[in-house]
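Let us work through a complete example step by step.
Step 1: write down the sequence.
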Amino acid sequence: MGTYVHNDDINSLYMLDLRHNILDAGRGDITNFQDTEYIFMRLTVLADNNTYIDKYYLGEPALSYFIEDGEETILFDCGYSDVFLRNAERMGLDIRKVNTLVLSHGHDDHTGGLAHLIRALPHARLVAHPDTLAEKQYDDGRNAGSMLLETDIPYEMFLSKEPQKVSEHITFLGEIPETNDFEKRVQFGVRDTGGQFEPDYVMEDSALVYETEEFIYIITGCSHSGICNIVEHAKSIFNKPVKGIIGGFHLKTVNERVEKTIEYLTSLDLEELYPCHCTSFAVRSAINQKIPVGEVGVGMKLEW
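Step 2: predict the structure and record it as tokens.
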């Protein structure tokens, strides 16, 4: 089971027993060393709509995760502003260690921090769907996407609709196919398709998968493509059980779609479930009646 802790000291060395319970936070006084293993994957929440009581980080309606996979460091989305950078500094995380930026999709609450990021991190890889950095607008004409276009970003681009390996254990899923009849894509404004604006169904929306020998773990941004579609796509690629999910589900009202989503998630027999960001309290409460839901907030860590 992945371990969940608030981020009081990101630089501490955490060690886990084989049941994945925290035994030590850097003191080295573990009594049964043979029953322990080092963590090789860590996810830290840098930006989310929620902040914890007595944890003095900044929140915003956005998402950003700092992911460490062995020697590789990945930034998954960069929030709406510079909040993710300010929180990282408070947590003692060095954003300059990031090798790869992965963008789940193009909306401004996931790409708005790009201008701040490229000043702090001038060189990196960028992994995303090819449509992610297209200009987007809401129906009223307001900007809905990244303020920076692909040509404005000094990163090495890896843009593909196909799955891409990001690090040893992490894969970007690419474009998500529809696999059910209740997660139809919904239009969110319009996007530039090369000189003209067309309805935007956020086809670029994707997710990450963390893979071990025994299981996979899903890491989402907003799940505009449907959380069940995302999971089914991941299962078709890796053919392993899903241990847990963290990220936005973009579900706001308890309706038939949510009921069918809960039914599907229940069938997975998940050990951990952390819907957050664009998942309303009403929906999280409805899910929690069937599956225990964990609280996500800025500074949260998941470790495996």
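Step 3: interpret the result. Residues 227-238 form the longest helix (12 residues).
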